[in-house]
Each structure stands twice: as C-alpha cells, then as structure tokens.
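ugh ok so i messed up the first submission bc i forgot one of the chains. this is the corrected input, ALL of the components this time, i swear. 627 residues overall. if the numbers dont match what u have on ur side tell me asap before i send this to the collaborators (the ones from the other lab, u know who)
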Amino acid sequence: MHASLNVKAGQRNGLIGESGSGKSVMARSILKLDDHRTTIYGTNSCIELDGTDILKLPEKSIGKFRGETVSMVFQNPMHSLNPSFTVGAQLRRVLMAHRNYSRSDSKIKILSALKSVDLPGVEELIQRYPHELSGGQCQRVMVAMAILCEPKLIVADEPTSALDVTAQDKVLQILKKLSVENKIAVLMITHDMGVVAQFCEIVNVMYGGRIIETADVKTLFTKPAHPYTAALLAATPDPSKPKKVFNSIPGLQESRTGKMSSSCAFIKRCKFAQPICSHAPEFRTLNDGQSVACHFAGELSLSK
Amino acid sequence: MSEIILDIKKISVIFNKMFFGRSQTIKAIDNVSLQIFNSETFGIVGESGSGKSTLGNAMIGLQTLSSGEIFYKEIALPLSGTKDWMRLRRQLQIIFQDPFTSLNPRRTIGQSLAEPIITHNLCSKNDVTSKVLSLLDQVGLNSNMAERYPNAFSGGQLQRICIARALAVQPQLIICDEITSALDVSTQAQIISLLKDLKLNQDLSLVFISHDLGLVRNIADRILVMYLGRIVEIGSSDIIFSDPKHPYTQALINAAPIPEPSREAARIKTPLFGEIPDPQNPPSGCFFRTRCNQVHDRCLIETPALKQVKKNQFVSCHHTEVH
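and heres the new structure output, hopefully the right one now
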C-alpha cells in the first residue's frame, strides 16, 4: 500500500474502493492493529494524529491512544461484542482502562453514551447480553463504546454492510449527529456509494493500494475525474431510478504480491489507457480542490 | 402476462423448536399466496427475519410446508427427498448468498459442474466435458479453470461458477438468494449483467431475493415486500417504487440511500422507529402496527387483507381505503 490522506477535525471522511484495494489495511494502520512482525511500514511513513506520530509510539503507550484519541467500529457487530459479558460490563471495561472513574460515575457515563445512540430502556439494556440484541442495536452499542472516551477520530470499517437498510439508516444518522455535536472526525470505510452520498463530506477513492482521487462529495458524484471513480458510480444501482443499463468494470483487480508496479494501478481495466500510463501518475489538483492521480485528469469526459 | 409457472396457494411455514424444555413456535410464513410467471424476474424484499429466504426455499421444496400447496406448472410440488422431487428439481434451481461455502472445496470446478449433468443424465458420458466447458464459457470464464479448486477463485468468479452450475440443467426457475451481497459493487454489476443476458437468451424466470432496494428495482419486473412472514405489498416494481402505498414499503424506500449527494440531502427522512417484533409473539391485528405512524383502532384488532389498489398493485393495509 502506498497512500496518503488527511482527515480534519470534525470532518466526515469517506474511503471507498473494492475489496483488496487496501481500505481495511489503512484503517488498521491508523490504530496500529497490524501484526508488527509481518507488517512493514516504509521508512518515511508517518501517521500523525493530533500531533503524535503513531508509528513512532512505543507499543506500551499505543493502548492509551486507542480508545482515547481514536476508536474503531468494526463491520460485524455480532462478532465485535463478547458474548459472555453483559453490555454494561463491556462498556465499563473501556472506562476502567482509560478513565479513573468511580463505579457510580462510570454508570452515569455509560448510560448517557447509550442514550446518545438512541437506544431505548438503557437501565435495563446494560444488564443484557449481546445475543439478546438485534444487529442494529449491537452496532449502536459499538458506537456508544467508541465515543465513551470522547475520541478525536472514529474509524468505521464498513459499519453498516451487515445491517438492513432501516438499521443502516439509523446507525448512519446517529454517527452523523454525534460527529456534528461533539466535533468527532469520522473515517467511514465502505464500498456503498449510497452510504457515501448520505454520510460523507470528503471522499477518498482507493484502488490497488493507492488513493486515486480525493474530492468533496458533490464534486465526486457530479464530476468524477478518475476513470475508476466514474466506473464505480456507473455500477451503482439507484433505488430512485427505473431500470438502467448496468456498466460493470471489465476484468479484476490485479493481485499485488511482490514489488509494486511502476505503472498506473488501473491501467489493465481502463478504457482510456495510453502508453504514458505505464508510468505512475502524480497527483494533480483541479479547481474545486479535487485531486486526482491520472495523466488525463480533467481531460476525459466521464460524466454519467 | 404469460403462463404461470409457479402457483403458491396459501402457504404457511411454522418452526417448532425446544428451548430449555419449553416449546416455541415461530410462524416464518403466514398464509402467503402468489404466482410467478414465465420468464419474469420477481424480487422479494424485506428486513432480516421477514421470511424472504424461507419463502425462497419453500418455492423449490427445500422447506417443508405446514399448510398450503405449491404448484409447478399445475403439478403439486412433491415432498423433498422423494424421487419425483429429484426429477422436478431439474427445473427449479437455487443460488445461495455465500459463494465461498456453496462449492465443495475438495472438488475441482469441472467436477462440481459435471455432477448435476451426470445426475440428471442430460448427455452421454463423452459429451460431459464439452458441456462443462461450454457452461464456463457461457458465464465468461476460461476453459482452463475447470481443473482448479474453489480456493483459487475470487468471490465474483465463484458466484459465476454457481450460476453456471444452476444453468447446467437448463432450469425454468432460478431462486437467487442474496447472491450479490458478499460482492463488491463492480463485481455485483458484472453478475447482474450476466443474469440479464442469460435471461434474454433463454426461457428463464428468476426470483431475486435481496435487501438492496436499488438492485431489486434495477432487475425485477414485479416485487413482493414482506414483513414478519406476511405479504405487505406486491405488484409491478415501477409502480411500487414510484408510488408505494403501504407505510412499511414507504419507510423501506425512504431508508435506502440515493447515490447522489444533492438529492439525498434534499430528501425528508422519516426513519422507522423500533425493531421488528419478536416473531414468537407477534402483535395482534396488523403486524406492522407497532412501528406504523398511522395506527387506527382497527389495526389493533383486524388483520388487513390484501386488496388491489391499482392494476398490478396489491396492498394489505386498512388505510388504503381511506386514501
């Protein structure tokens, strides 16, 4: 993976791309959840969060960082909670690790966090076990857990792809509300364009381990500048429109074992590919603050 | 419309299970009747727990019915496991959600594809290989892939193989149970285009189960909206999406995000409150009344019957008369 992206305080960022593009690796790197024996960071890699470079932090102080400055919401809520402990006990453990609260103070804090994610009957809920809750409720408990220590950033790795449309809608609205009210930045990782349209302000598109386009959400949807972004938009079904012809992207993403190739990552599937594309393109900034890694950025007619 | 190929008459499916010595009954499907016509695509939508997959399984006899009957071209669907059923299953195929677990990891793709052909005696032994290769070609895969095992393929390729396996016996009806929910958008688009092409070239009906409303609108001619095992709304996909009558259908369509930021932001969202009720003790009267924002006294007592409101649109809601 070779990618740069920045998230401003309180901003709702999106990171999209197909499976294997490196989205989740990016998320795990931000929390340094990767196995340090098998993951190698480049010599000039840097993940700076609130002024601290996470990669340079010693292993011991990382734990304090996770949960307090940055926290994460995972894809499958049913697997993220421990089935043997009640909801309240699991939330309390987070506070025990990070805060020096008395038992009654931590209960107040837990109840208010659960209320802020719109869960009903919180007094009773903390006594219940994860299997007694629905998927949507579990994911809201996970969101409550993520905001317990008032982090600066929440990394949400496909938090709604295991949920129904109705539960998805609810979780996204709650995350949005919390982000706006408490100025928490969110990095939303997803492959669903609908989620991006509903939730994000800034969108980063990832392909083959690289970020290939960054733009604000309106620009990205109306004027995509990278052929891959345009193809992704064309492949997304729209529930508000009747049947259209689906335009799929031909071929598959290449496997990236071994050395990273020097050509543009999308070259084999791009219908605009030219000889120059065998050199990796530099980032270019178009007007509207849209930055694109394509030799022909702004020159192709890609609108839908 | 053309000929009816599957006629479902008042079916119910009740699950009985023992939980710590107590017997519990769950009505997964409650008195559902519908028809599926020749060469149409029929979509089924609803939240998880609404009985979509149980209905899909029941359609091909994988689920024993508690009451009611299903007729395939005027023949009653035989009991699963019987010889008659095995013979009929050639016409009725199913593709499951997770392609990684629907193929035998110890068999090559070629072996997996050859099995239904040999079981149903569709061609002579010498022709099996060429038949397998033509199937792979039909779903856009290389012939050298027949030698490989499932672990060598990506999710999208495996789902194509599952489609090829379903097509091997030249079925009349294929049930697609959330076949793209494990896949990426771009791969999903490839699979959907493939299904659309295959449907054009042969006489085939599809039942498309999904919770992705955008996808269902895109592929289905008619749709069925289910809630707690009952039919909520059924009819032409264009009519239901543009003018949904049942409050639940309206809420579902409202919850699905539109992939266009300006239009999505301009929408007034009326979120559905609460959760789907416990199917063991469903509410009295209309099942949706606990989450509905237009409840009347009548909804508490009386179960609404399915009524026709337009040509090709049927709704089960007491309020449709008021409108």
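quick check: The mean pLDDT of chain B is 90. that seems consistent at least. DSSP finds eleven helices and twelve strands in chain B.
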